[in-house]
Amino acid sequence: MPQNTSNDDIDLSRLIARILRHKKVAIATAIVFFVATIAYLKITDKFYQTTTKFVYQSSAKQSGNLSTLAALAGFSVGSGSSDDGSAYMEDIIKSKDFLSQFATREWFIADANKTADTLKPITLEKFWKIKIDSSVNNIEQHLQEAIIGKILKRKYIKYEQDKKTGIISLITQFEDTKLSYDFNVAIFEELNNTLLHKMRFKAAENRKFIEERLSEIKSDLSKSEEILLRFQQQNRSWNDPSIQLQESRLTRDVTINQELALQLQKQYELAKIEEARDMPLLDVIESPRRALIHFKPRLKLGLAIGFAGGIILGLLSALGFDFVRTERKNLIEQVEKAKKELS
User: Pairing between strand 122-123 and 106-107?
Assistant: First the structure.
């Protein structure tokens, strides 16, 4: 066991000695790598992040007053089962139909190095300098797909949701601080409008269906009442069992239609209440703010990587240089030895 420890010490000492023999190579390599890292951090695109935090909920806060209103009409309003828009919100944000409305929109840019005039808005095509082959058909469609593809591929938009709290984070990361902020605000507003339209359309369709069905039932009720009235006027004798049986059948039809009309009237009032209240609300928890400093690349992390990487690469370079010189020296000695033997 002591012998193994001694051998390890010898090997480590030799390794350190080999590195120290070429310490200039190691130091030069480390400096070059560190300087290259600094240069990369300086010339690479800076990304600025904007975040909006919000929660999705229906306007259940108004349900107390609406329940009171419904109670005055003679029925109660349950909590219902409204759609959870957050389940498909990310799909909406990352869909091509949704993003297409931003692909051709013009945006103001704050960085004078990114645009010739900061007071004049430009499209993402000009901002990213996207080029499309003019010989292809439907250039505008190809351009739109290129912009959307870059947004999705480079993850300029992120959607995160805390499963415990339900808080949703809408994150945008662009090469310009104003563009990142404006894009975040635009997406949030359009998302809210899309959800509002979806829920209003669904509630309106439900109310319309019940309204049509209620109209049919009321018409059936009116007809059944008229038939019963005529029958009673034409048959005033109650001694005939067949007449009594027919009258009970007509009365039953009226009762059924009355019950259906009553239930549908309740459902109709409920549908109108749902149409008025079940609107998705994106309640903002944290408003977006323009970033003052870039989010990435991270300067401290980059410098740490450059420093550590430079040291490691410098040590490897010294060992590699020593290995090459040693092998070259051994090869020369073998050649000289071979020459002497031949002579």
Answer: antiparallel
How confident is the model at residue 233, as a pLDDT? Answer: 83
Give pLDDT < 50 ranges for the chain: 1, 10, 59-82
Three-state SS annotation for the chain: CHHHHHHHHHHHHHHHHHHHHCHHHHHHHHHHHHHHHHHHHHHCCCEEEEEEEEEEEECHHHHHHHHHHHHHCCCCCCCCCCCCCHHHHHHHHCCHHHHHHHHCCEECCCCCCCCCCCCCCEEHHHHHCCCCCCCCCCHHHHHHHHHHHHHHHCCCEEEEECCCCCCEEEEEEECCHHHHHHHHHHHHHHHHHHHHHHHHHHHHHHHHHHHHHHHHHHHHHHHHHHHHHHHHHHCCCCCCHHHHHHHHHHHHHHHHHHHHHHHHHHHHHHHHHHHHHCCEEEEEEECCCCCCCCCECCHHHHHHHHHHHHHHHHHHHHHHHHHHHHHHHHHHHHHHHHHHHHC
Within the chain, all domains assigned CATH 3.30.1890 are found at 48-208+280-286
Token pair for 115:
């645009």
Residue 127 pLDDT = 93
pLDDT of residue 73: 42
What confidence score (pLDDT) does residue 61 get?
Answer: 43
Give the pLDDT of residue 174: 95
Q: Which pLDDT does position 316 carry in this prediction?
A: 85
Both tokens of 125, joined, read 């095509």
CB atoms under 10 Å from CB of 85, counted, come to 20
Rounded Cα–Cα distance for residues 268 and 208 (Å): 9
Q: Tell me the C-alpha distance between 32 and 19, whole Å.
A: 18
Q: Which of 322, 339, 342, 331 is nearest to 16 (CA)?
A: 322
- To the question of domain 48-208+280-286 being in CATH 3.30.70, the answer is no
